[in-house]
Amino acid sequence: MRMNGSSDVEMASRDIGAYDSCPYGCTYCYAVRNCEAAKRNCQRHDPEGEFLIPP
Predict the structure, then answer these.
(1) Which end of the chain is less enclosed by CB atoms within 10 A, N or C?
(2) Domains of the chain: total
(3) pTM of the predicted model, to two decimals?
(4) Around Cβ 15, how many Cβ atoms within 10 Å?
């Protein structure tokens, strides 16, 4: 979890998604262009990691 850079208030923030990162395959979803890539990215995700999908 990161802290935002505001000097007034510090709030924890967390990424909630990225293109091709959701494995559910909803037909109306605009954020997944490639279902196989989304499945691979989901497998690479570490909930405790600094990044949603490691570089």
Answers:
(1) C
(2) 1
(3) 0.63
(4) 12
